[in-house]
Specification:
alpha/beta, Rossmann fold, 8-stranded mixed β-sheet, 8 strands, globular
């Protein structure tokens, strides 16, 4: 199981999928998951991507097979971003295509803005607006998880997350999958990173950006999403049918195809 030590008390699990022709030097796509997830969240994407690109999937610190974080860990966006940068340095990858879903899309917008020399393109899938929720909502979210548990929160919110068309068996899988998250890690993450304000980062994004959402996403309307998307000059918006906000899970095939088209049109100079 490949891991990278990113600090004295944190190891990052990662996986590299590469089914490209062995004589090629493929470009790299870094996939960054959302809250209460891991590299496994991208199961529907890898078969599409790994034949043409080297695909790197990592478990964010605190999640999946990476080291759990203490309840009082001082989370910041830059800590999470720097973990990914250390991983890409370890793999000797200077520039890459960056993809994030849900909170991964929040982290990655800041990532692209703060490290423009590393990110060639950015793709954001089913991700909230730059400013998310008020203090009361933030507090209620933390209280619910602490008092009732991650499984309760996941079950209550899964309808909006996966929408009305997702199979019941899939809903149960996602609830159980997300409920495996370490409680202390989630408590600290949910109160900090989960409600980050990245409004100052959006206008600083210089690379081409693809944004994918659904027609009836519970995170934001199409108009609200377009408002911040259009702040980035080289950006495109794809709106899929449906009412889920986790399009990366519910519409993995369509999202992966949109990404392949987008990245293919913005290939790096050889």
């Amino acid at each position: 199981m490949p891991t990278l030590t990113v600090s004295p008390r944190a190891e990052l699990f990662y996986q590299v999928d590469d089914f490209t022709d062995p004589w090629r030097k493929p470009e790299t796509i870094l996939l960054c998951h959302g809250n209460n997830e891991s590299h496994q969240a991208w199961y529907g994407w890898v078969p599409h991507l790994a034949r043409r690109y080297q695909v790197v999937r990592s478990d964010m610190r605190g999640f999946g097979a990476s080291t759990p974080m203490a309840r009082d860990f001082p989370w910041t966006l830059d800590i999470v971003i720097n973990d990914y940068l250390r991983l890409m340095d370890e793999l000797r990858i200077k520039r890459f295509h960056l993809v994030g879903a849900k909170i991964g899309g929040v982290i990655n917008r800041a990532f692209a803005a703060r490290h423009p020399h590393r990110v060639h393109t950015l793709t954001v899938v089913g991700s909230p607006p730059p400013i998310r929720a008020d203090a009361a909502t933030r507090s209620a979210r933390g209280t619910e998880v602490e008092e009732l548990g991650i499984a309760h929160w996941a079950r209550r919110s899964m309808g909006a997350r996966l929408g009305s068309r997702f199979p019941k068996e899939g809903v149960e899988w996602w609830i159980n999958y997300m409920a495996r998250t370490d409680m202390a890690s989630e408590a600290g993450f949910a109160g900090t990173i989960n409600f980050s304000d990245i409004s100052a980062d959006i206008p600083k994004i210089q690379c081409p950006m693809l944004v994918i959402t659904t027609q009836e996403s519970g995170l934001a309307s199409v108009e609200q999403t377009r408002a911040w998307q259009q702040q980035v000059p080289q950006s495109e918006l794809v709106v899929l049918p449906g009412d889920s906000f986790h399009a990366a899970a519910t519409d993995a095939d369509d999202c992966a195809r949109a990404l392949l088209d987008f990245v293919g049109r913005h290939a790096m100079a050889s």
